[in-house]
Design the sequence.
């Protein structure tokens, strides 16, 4: 009896306290008078660590800049990044920690698609704004979420970009495709089929698939060789594409080689060697972060070097995940700035939705609206130069 | 016809590498009744070491090759001494699990030391194809098959003709009896692990220019195991033939049936063969031992 009374008493006190101090003006998670907490989960270790480390550094650099100049509307940024090693399970844990424990105001960058899609529901349910700068999977936006924004072209736009280049500019007559049997590869294959059928009215002479983790593609390539294509689209990740490109050459396949967005990383050349020369692919940013001489990118490289890598960059850095994450941070900054002192997640989302042609010279201009959170559909066509580095195909921008 | 020849040649190239790994599986199994699931990782280690010596330290290719094999062999012997020998009286299953654990440790260790980045082993010979009767072959793949076949032959001679090899054979037949006639069982086991690690490493070095080097490349090693089972796990020449056969079946099935099904096809063949002849195509029925 006494126990029950005490319980009731505690409840009354709690209710009164809640009405007095909390009530309708409940404080926004992750926002205090002096700071805004921003969270990130990404692969910082494991096979795709390059992506996560790039993104983390891009955001870190921005955080340093903001905090050095005193924050945004008097609030400094408190940036928390967790490693998910590219694993969906660890991504779940990381997201839970960020939302429940650290109570971040917003999320940035995110992980590879496999570790981002499984947590998109939690993010939407908890109404945490999320500016994504790694995953380009179309299902990130399906169904549409008011809280999720993307910084660069999704996979469909990337696939369409390279296929259009292949057919319109390289005048391929007998196209063929080799693709990964996972979501990514099949997604690319569907766009390929659809574009050939509806737009170009050209049949595909061969379509071969392989399984994730395969290391030998002889069988597929021999079948393709038998169909005698003049252009082959390699819809694969860069590691596998590297082997495919080399084996294609070793088997005497002479078709021009093209790749989806997954192939435009330095990993391709590391796997393929000189066989990669001339390989044409699609990049989600207009400037190649490692070698672009555009002032905005040069400035980024210099700042990154001074702040984090005084002894030189690790291989493959800075990558497009650097500049994409940095742009994601900058557009968040613009929205935070626009909202002002009365910062809420809802107001922040509204401010993001009002962004039009946001451009800091590192990605394609980003625009959002109430019903479209895909920042852009533009892609850049890139090619492996004789020195084995990626170079922009000049006239491709803006298509 | 050209396509068929091409398929056979590509299949044999792959098969020769499976054979090197597969031989390692069989050698350990015959002596210790353990299936060493770290074989693929030893292969990866060999490739990594060779890459380090050749690319980072700029040693001549053959020296790098040799060093990688010898070091992997020493490492294999060390594993036997410190990881497996203490378990010698445990059930075989425990030992097999220990090899799985060791494999994971090697993989994680390499990831920590070298990172997960992709590397390409610069090929010594040209990878530009030339045509023989319409079939594209590269000097690279020809040399790989040649070296693999040479290595396999050398090891078979070793087992048949040398004292050490015969000692290994005797130990695998009957451990106690071998000990009674003065063969050091411990020494033999060290040697067995060293040799099979060296074999795996050599497969790794040869395979490296054909695929790419990552800490995960060891997964291809399991094909050597399957090939060996297909041919006959207790029969060395049979196991080797099985590995070649597996490489060829994979490519035949991949080209003539469906490329995405090539693993399925090879497993179906494996299951069929084992149903009809559980000891493998060329394997002799395993007799009861005294």
Sequence:
């Amino acid at each position: 009896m006494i126990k029950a009374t005490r319980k009731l008493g505690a409840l009354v006190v709690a209710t009164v306290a809640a009405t007095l101090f909390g009530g309708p003006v409940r404080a926004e998670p992750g926002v205090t008078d002096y700071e805004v907490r921003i969270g990130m989960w990404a692969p910082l270790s494991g096979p795709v660590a390059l992506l996560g480390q790039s993104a983390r550094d891009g955001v870190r650099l921005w955080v340093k800049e903001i905090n050095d100049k005193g924050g945004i509307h008097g609030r400094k940024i408190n940036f928390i990044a967790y490693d998910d090693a590219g694993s969906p399970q660890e991504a779940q844990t990381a997201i839970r920690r960020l939302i429940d424990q650290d109570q971040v105001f917003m999320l940035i960058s995110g992980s590879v698609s496999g570790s981002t899609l499984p947590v998109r529901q939690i993010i939407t349910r908890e109404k945490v704004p999320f500016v994504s700068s790694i995953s380009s999977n179309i299902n990130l936006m399906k169904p549409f979420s008011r809280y999720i924004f993307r910084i660069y072209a999704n996979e469909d736009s990337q696939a369409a970009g390279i296929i259009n280049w292949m057919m319109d500019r390289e005048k391929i007559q007998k196209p063929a495709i080799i693709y990964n049997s996972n979501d990514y590869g099949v997604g690319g294959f569907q766009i390929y089929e659809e574009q050939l059928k509806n737009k170009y009215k050209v049949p595909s002479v061969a379509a071969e698939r392989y399984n994730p983790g395969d290391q030998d593609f002889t069988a597929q390539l021999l079948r393709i060789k038998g169909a005698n294509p003049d252009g082959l689209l390699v819809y694969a990740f860069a590691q596998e594409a590297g082997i495919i490109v080399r084996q294609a050459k070793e088997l005497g396949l002479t078709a021009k080689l093209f790749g989806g967005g997954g192939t435009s990383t330095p990993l391709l050349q590391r796997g393929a060697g000189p066989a990669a020369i001339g390989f044409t692919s699609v990049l989600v940013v207009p400037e190649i972060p490692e070698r672009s001489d555009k002032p905005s990118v040069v400035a980024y490289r210099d700042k990154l070097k001074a702040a984090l890598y005084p002894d030189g960059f690790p291989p493959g850095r800075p990558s497009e995940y650097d500049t994409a994450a940095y742009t994601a941070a900058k557009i968040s900054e613009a929205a935070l700035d626009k909202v002002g002192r009365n910062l809420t997640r809802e107001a922040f989302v509204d401010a993001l939705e009002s962004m039009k042609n946001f451009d800091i010279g590192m990605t394609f201009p980003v625009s959002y609206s109430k019903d479209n959170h895909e920042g852009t559909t533009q892609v850049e066509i890139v090619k492996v130069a004789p020195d084995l580095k990626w170079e922009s195909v000049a006239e491709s921008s803006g298509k | 016809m050209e396509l068929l020849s091409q398929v056979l040649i590509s299949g044999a190239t792959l098969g020769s590498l499976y054979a090197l790994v597969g031989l390692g599986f069989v050698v350990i199994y015959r002596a210790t009744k353990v299936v060493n699931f770290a074989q693929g990782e030893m292969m990866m280690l060999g490739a990594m070491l060779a890459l380090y010596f050749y690319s980072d330290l700029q040693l001549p290719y053959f020296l790098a090759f040799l060093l990688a094999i010898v070091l992997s062999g020493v490492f294999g012997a060390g594993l036997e001494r410190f990881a497996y020998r203490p378990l010698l009286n445990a059930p075989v299953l425990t030992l097999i699990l220990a090899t799985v654990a060791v494999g994971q440790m090697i993989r994680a260790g390499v990831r920590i030391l070298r990172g997960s980045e992709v590397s390409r082993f610069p090929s010594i010979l040209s990878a530009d194809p030339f045509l023989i009767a319409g079939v594209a072959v590269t000097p690279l793949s020809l040399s790989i098959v040649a070296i693999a076949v040479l290595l396999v032959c050398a090891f078979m001679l070793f087992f048949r003709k040398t004292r050490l090899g015969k000692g290994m054979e005797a130990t695998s037949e009957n451990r106690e009896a071998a000990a009674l006639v003065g063969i050091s069982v411990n020494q033999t086991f060290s040697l067995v692990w060293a040799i099979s690690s060296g074999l795996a490493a050599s497969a790794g070095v040869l395979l490296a220019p054909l695929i790419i080097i990552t800490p995960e490349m060891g997964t291809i090693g399991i094909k050597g195991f399957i090939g060996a089972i297909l041919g006959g796990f207790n029969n060395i020449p049979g196991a080797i033939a099985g590995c070649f056969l597996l490489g060829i079946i994979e490519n035949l099935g991949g080209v003539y049936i469906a490329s995405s099904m090539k693993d399925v096809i090879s497993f179906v063949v494996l299951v069929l063969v084992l149903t009809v002849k559980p000891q493998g195509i060329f394997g002799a029925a395993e007799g009861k031992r005294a």
Summary: Residues 19-25 of chain A have pLDDT under 50 and may be disordered. Chain A touches chain B through 37 residues (CB under 8 Å). Residues 35-153+292-368 of chain A form a domain with the Rossmann fold fold (CATH 3.40.50.2300).
